[in-house]
Write a structure and sequence with these properties.
Two copies of one chain form a homodimer. Chain A is α/β, with parallel strands linked by helices. Chain A is built from 13 helices and twelve strands. In chain A, strand 6, helix 9 and strand 7 form a beta-alpha-beta unit. Chains A and B meet through helix 4, helix 5, strand 2 and helix 6 of A and helix 4, helix 5, strand 2 and helix 6 of B. The first copy, chain A, binds a DNA duplex through helix 2 and helix 4.
DNA sequence: CTGAAAGCGCTTACAG
DNA sequence: CTGAAAGCGCTTACAG
């Protein structure tokens, strides 16, 4: 069905022009006559010519591939995020004729990424998550590979794209406060992560703004296991709290389960808010208030920033994206 | 930090030999003196030389990339599978110095895949799922691109790797029958999919083997919505059934939820078995009997089969992999 | 066992 | 505006 692959040489011969000219017509670089260009372009279209990405790569020492590194050990709750993120990156990349090679790493094993880099298979990489002590980040920086992180990094020199978690959390908390809900408890996750710190900061911003004094015994941090979360909930239930704010969707899931187990009604007995809204939560139960971040948007921003960076264009070191406060008044029980 | 990239030319000059020889030492192809080879290899190791995959690609007209195509619209339940599958493929591929480029398609849109193929960015592809009318499969076949499907295809000429669903389901059902459990109901999913047909066939095999006559009104097929499944469960509960067999994990999840809602106890009041066991189910509740398929194993098989196929080696058209019957007697209520 | 040379399919100074 | 030529970094007949 497919006859021999067409090359730039074939076209040049067929059209009686040099391959230099053909190349220029395609790339759009360099002066070229309007007429000649159109002739070439027409021929290309008619004969369905596709330049060999690999040959172009060799000539320009580029691969037209980027890598998305994602945690191979990510938990169930994170999967929808990575799936959508991958989709977004892949879609955006293809618009610039780039493709994405996956590399899966764990907190302490980045061999897949190293292979990719050493074999020169990619022009740049986007780091799907940021860790405080990130060996992948360190490695890329040291190698001088263009890269962008999704999520904030503590290193001010790395190019990062993130949602404005701090503002978002401040705003969500403000919504509660302005509804005269003051007795709120906060259940936080691993405070070693950067995003947790930002969320907590946003929460405190709102407290300051509304002049609400947060009692420390209503703030539960580092609740990194289901057991701890359940205990926190039990504790909270004794304290006449109006609303539980969960720092992420995993916590929120556990809280909802626990409340159900305890036969506590939402929102009559207590309200629940979450600083992160995932598809996992969405399908499960009604959270009264939550934050939604647009995964496609952050993926596109990461990808485009990286591609510009690869092309040596100036890019902002830090891109902060918006969010949406979702108010879901539970009408059905 | 990194000095200039080393090339084969540099090595040749440094070692006072021809680059042909260097190339041969690296690839291991062609005759070469033991001593010379070792000298080259040592130099390479010491200076951390890595051949340019892209140059090698051009010379051999290969990319050393394969593509994994996966559904961009896959549902929550399928995510863990694809995540593990991706990990498996990626790991296996890297052992042969291949990398995997992701392409996400939907049932009717395979533009991402088409781009990849037309731009010659991959040497082959593994299809992450099979559809009865699969445009991706059709496209690849017509283009003559080496590909392998994970899951069965109706087209006997396509190279496929699958678990032996039929035997697995026969065996699981047999376990029930041999425990003298005879009043079983089957809730099946979309019968248009190939895997559903195989599972049903396995179920019927067991019936025949044990001489059990299956009443049609205990078999619920095409239960493709939560509502339908719930109705099926309601119906089943009236019929004095001992065990519900769910054709997949999604159905099983719904069934468990419904039973809980109806305050039916498992396994006292009724047992539940599933023809597919996913991590989603696992974390949720206790299913008495289920089938486990090793995702890593199928990923490795897909990948290795594809790589052999790319190398023009003979590969089996159909590879059937094993399964594990998981008997989980619920001890806690 | 080893090498000179052509080639993979593009791009890009350089010259006109 | 257009072309001849060198080059990107490998591989592989072909010849010795």
């Amino acid at each position: 069905m497919d006859n021999k692959k067409l090359t730039i040489d074939d076209i040049a011969r067929e059209l009686q022009i040099s391959k230099t000219t053909v190349s220029r017509a395609i790339s759009g670089k360099g002066r070229i006559g309007q007429e000649t260009r159109e002739k070439v372009l027409r021929y290309i279209k008619e004969n369905n010519y596709k330049p060999s990405a690999i040959a172009r790569g060799l000539a320009q020492s580029k691969t037209f591939n980027i890598s998305l590194v994602m945690p191979g050990d990510s938990s169930l709750v994170d999967l929808p995020f990575y799936h959508n993120f991958l989709w977004g990156i892949s879609n955006t990349a293809s618009k610039s004729d780039y493709d994405v090679i996956i590399s899966m790493v764990s907190e302490k094993d980045i061999t897949q990424l190293v292979r990719l880099i050493e074999n020169n298979k990619v022009d740049g990489v986007v780091l799907g998550r940021t860790l405080e002590e990130d060996i992948a980040e360190k490695y890329l920086k040291q190698k001088g590979i263009p890269f962008v992180t999704a999520g904030s990094s503590l290193d001010p020199t790395v190019i990062q794209v993130d949602n404005d978690h701090r503002s978002a959390c401040r705003e969500l908390t403000s919504v509660l406060f302005s509804k005269r809900i003051r007795r709120v408890a906060l259940i936080g996750s691993d405070m070693k992560t950067i995003v947790s710190k930002n969320r907590l900061a946003g929460f405190r911003d709102a407290c300051t703004e509304f002049n609400v004094f947060m009692e420390d015994d209503l703030i539960y941090l580092d609740m990194d296991s289901e057991t701890k979360i359940e205990e926190a909930v039990e504790d909270i239930l004794k304290k006449n709290v109006e609303c539980i704010i969960c720092m992420d969707d995993y916590i929120c899931g556990c809280v909802l389960e626990k409340l159900e187990k305890e036969n506590v009604n939402i929102p009559e007995d207590i309200k629940v808010a979450s600083f992160y809204d995932s598809s996992l939560l969405e399908s499960r139960q009604s959270v009264n208030l939550s934050l939604k971040f647009n995964v496609t948007e952050i993926a596109a921003a990461c990808c485009n920033t990286l591609l510009s960076h690869i092309d040596k264009k100036d890019v902002p070191v830090k891109t902060l994206l918006g969010y949406e406060v979702v108010i879901r008044e539970a009408t059905q029980s």
